[in-house]
Known about the structure:
- With 551 residues, the chain is α+β, with helices and mostly antiparallel strands.
- The protein has helices at 15-22, 35-48, 53-68, 83-86, 99-106, 125-149, 152-172, 207-213, 263-285, 288-295, 301-316, 343-354, 360-368, 388-392, 519-523, and strands at residues 2-6, 394-401, 404-405, 417-424, 427-430, 439-440, 449-456, 467-474, 487-489, 495-497, 511-515, 535-537, 543-550.
- It has 15 helices and 13 strands.
- A three-stranded antiparallel sheet has the order 1-4-5. Strands 11-8-13 form a three-stranded antiparallel sheet, with no helix packed on it.
- Strand 4 and strand 5 form a beta hairpin.
- Helix 6 (125-149) runs antiparallel to helix 7 (152-172).
Amino acid sequence: MRIRGRAHRIRRRTLAVAFAASLCAVTSPARAFDTQPHFDMTRDALTAEGFGLPAASIAGVNNWFVDYYTNPDRNPHSGHASFLLGWTRLGLAHENWPNFYIDGARRLHFDYEQRAADMPNLSSTAGIEREWDRLQFRARRLLGIYGRSNDPLGVLSTIGSSLHAVQDFYAHSNWVEALRPGASGLGGPGIASLGYGSHPTFFDIPPEVRAAVLVGDRNVYTGVRGIPRGHGHWRSHFLPRFPPGRPTSEEALNKDWSGRPKYQDAYITAYFASRQWVRAMRIWLGNEPLWNRAMSMAQTSALAHDITGAEEISQYSGHWMGGGEPCVRFINCSVRSGKAGSLSSLTIALRDFHAGPTSRYRRAFNQMIGEWALFGDIPDLPDPPSSRAIQALTRFAKLEVLGYRGLRLGDPVGDAEIYANVRLGGQPSTSTIIDSADSFSFPRPYAPFTWIRSVPTPNQASTPVTSMTVRVETGNRSGAGTDDDVYLRINGHQRFSLDKALYDDFERGDVDTYSVPIGNATRDGLSVGTSTAWRSRRARTAAAAAGSCTG
């Protein structure tokens, strides 16, 4: 893991840009897992199913597009924003999104509001069943289209966008909550008590059991009208009950970031559901050569551009990993506001994302997103195979950053923006950005930077090195000592400089101890098992070196 701080790269831009940003509303995603859980979960599930990281990232980007297209009135580049908000584009990158783009994206969150008689009622188990059939029917139809046209990018677009709805069901519903008898509309169905594993997905429960058991107090629902629980916002569980008699704020349904109750259970269940859905899609496609082409798509600069856009727009809007939306005092501060993000930086991130032509990945998304808006007659379709076999072979690793303190960050204007980069199981990820805080201990309503990754049960990973201390004794005979640079090399490709600031190292007879900075090396895979040799590179030095490292 690597924690970084950086100066406010946007705040030192022109005053005109800063003023325009102050008028820009936050492009907050609709009710969903924040972007980081969606993105990381999608890549984790797909790489576990054999996809290369670029292909998994394409699906992750398409997953994010669902959120991005859901709030066009808050995006100055969409063609749907007000004149005042549109002015913040400063004349650049204007698009005009068709309404069917927006309708399709909004109906992939699994808690959209009903607007027509033929839409499923998502406040009941029966309506949830119908919505799952609708999503499966639309996914099968899209895969049939891309199978006939032999289009691997279309397959990945379908995978990524549909996984948004699959994952959101567990973030937006009461599925992972315990039964509360007599509290109709407030409790959960108590799924874990039914004997189908600790984190069963919707399709792990047999249809006949769902029909017979998930009724009354065990009814399954999402955060829509007709139930006494709202979706909630990022810090709703820390607010008091108001007015009296209203359900407590802890009973808001959202489990969309690590500070929310039941987030971990929702995340783990959604991960298994993602792999279950991907395996079902492989069967629905029925074209192994095309599936293999989709799995092996290559990295491109356009993909890197879209990944950067997903990260920066989500981070600066406060919807990457919790932390609250940015605010400008007296303009847009609310109960959703926190220390994450920056309106001025968000304005630049949006402009950078829309600069130049639309990527092939977003064009593919645009071509298929309207399909998800359709309803009509939906057949009763069979369930995908159970995920129990996947669960038996999977464990999870959880990493949390509980606090940090920046040293010599070099920001000439105020405090730095702080974020953490990590690599878990070969997959890179980053945290949200904490704005203007060189030190932070995550007091409520904040929660630590948190990552969860799946780990195969047979996996035996080497213990990572967490610290390295080297003791160097410089000889005491004539000619010992040096003013040259001295390095410690521990294997064939990693070396570390041994040097203390404002100190004359390696003088004759010295005994010195060095704590080696190993952040980059640990991120690149340094472990106790890879530390094969200890030797120093020096000139004219008669020295004996002894070192120790800890995992």
